[in-house]
Specification:
There is one protein chain. This protein is an all-alpha fold. The chain has one domain. It is built from twelve helices and no strands. The protein is globular and about 60 Å long. It starts with about 30 loop residues before the first helix and ends in a 6-residue tail after the last helix.
Length: about 375
């Protein structure tokens, strides 16, 4: 998920090895982040409990996606331990293990997205409102897919190392792509869940979108840490990521409870209605693109961003600064504020639209 991008739970404990300590290989070196990651599992299980209640009517595939995150969580434990015992490194510095574990997070996010997409009508060229948008999306995908491929074919690490050589623990393009895709996918999931509040008739789903923001910021923390080549100078980011994971899981658990409570209340109210009462059926808005188009677009953007970050950061001094703390904090804070602003504006627009739809009294 990101959203829960790079969300992890740290359970230590094979032969005294802490898989998630920032430095050192023994249990004694375990830092505060490990406890926070471990604590974040409990509210996540609460989230799964309420999402799985029949009254909540969570799309089956999306519900499975949320559950699938547990596979990612527990896969990172042996991967982290193996990195410590075999490479004497943190998992983030062992690229093939790191990328392999994180790929499970991408799968998680895609399952959630595709699950919520299944609740919406497929796009059709027969619809005059959808056809222009769909055609434009398909055309953009057809053109943009060549952009990252051309970049990959024409650049190399040495081409961008005229200012800085690439450190040995730099993430590979596939691993960077997994991280960038997780952030993009979590944003897509937030949008679909917000819209699901309208198509399902349960407005409390919007609260889930708000609750997903800390998890997205947690993913930004992970990417920021990697952007600075996992330097111990900003090891505090790992603790921040862990704290945001705990906060995000707790917020989503509470949001799921509110969704369940609202759904249960609505079900009870509907059961008491008389047959003469009119029922209002919500017609879901069609998707703007096909599933295939969405997957291609996400893949293209992820590869493009991976190439841009991996090679672009070699041309600037920021990742190699001896005091990277302020820059790292800005990298985390600014996108988070933009994300909050986006949903604040969306909520305001929705409220205005509702006000305009309400009938006015005639005098």
């Amino acid at each position: 998920m990101q959203a829960m991008s790079s969300t992890s739970v740290s359970l230590s404990l094979v032969e005294g090895v802490n898989a998630w300590s920032v430095s050192g290989a023994t249990l004694a070196s375990s830092d505060f982040a490990s406890s926070l990651f471990a604590a974040s599992l409990l509210p996540y299980l609460v989230l799964l409990f309420f999402l799985s209640r029949p009254a909540t009517t969570t799309p089956k595939l999306a519900n499975f996606g949320f559950q699938f995150l547990l596979i990612f969580v527990f896969a990172t434990i042996p991967a982290g331990i193996y990195a410590k015992t075999q490479y004497h490194e943190i998992l983030a510095n062992v690229d093939w293990l790191h990328g392999g574990a994180e790929s499970l997070l991408t799968i998680t996010n895609l399952l959630i997205i595709l699950g919520f997409r299944q609740t919406r009508p497929r796009p059709s060229f027969t619809s005059p409102d959808v056809a222009p948008v769909l055609a434009e999306t398909e055309n953009m995908n057809g053109v943009s897919i060549f952009v990252p491929l051309l970049i990959l074919a024409s650049v190399s690490t040495s081409a961008f190392s005229f200012l800085h050589p690439e450190p040995s623990n730099a993430l590979s393009i596939p691993t960077w792509a997994v991280h960038t895709s997780s952030l993009l996918e979590w944003l897509a999931a937030m949008k679909l869940i917000w819209e699901h509040s309208e198509t399902s008739g349960n407005a409390k789903w919007k609260g889930m979108t708000w609750a997903m923001i800390p998890s997205h910021t947690s993913g930004i923390c992970a990417c920021t840490y990697h952007f600075f080549y996992n330097t111990p100078l900003i090891a505090w980011i790992v603790s921040l990521q862990a704290g945001l994971t705990l906060i995000g899981n707790s917020c989503m658990a509470f949001a799921a409870y509110r969704i369940y409570k609202e759904a249960s209340t609505s079900t009870a109210s509907t059961a008491t209605q008389t047959p003469s009462q009119d029922s209002f059926k919500i017609i879901p808005k069609p998707l703007e693109d096909s599933d295939g188009s969405f997957l291609i677009d996400t893949f293209v953007k992820s590869i493009f961003l991976a190439v841009l970050v991996k090679y672009g950061e070699l041309t600037i001094d920021v990742p190699f600064s001896p005091t990277p703390g302020q820059a790292a904090a800005a990298f985390i804070a600014l996108p988070t504020l933009a994300n909050i602003a986006k949903w604040t504006i969306r909520a305001s627009a929705d409220e205005t639209a509702k006000e305009n739809e309400r009938p006015t009294s005639a005098f």
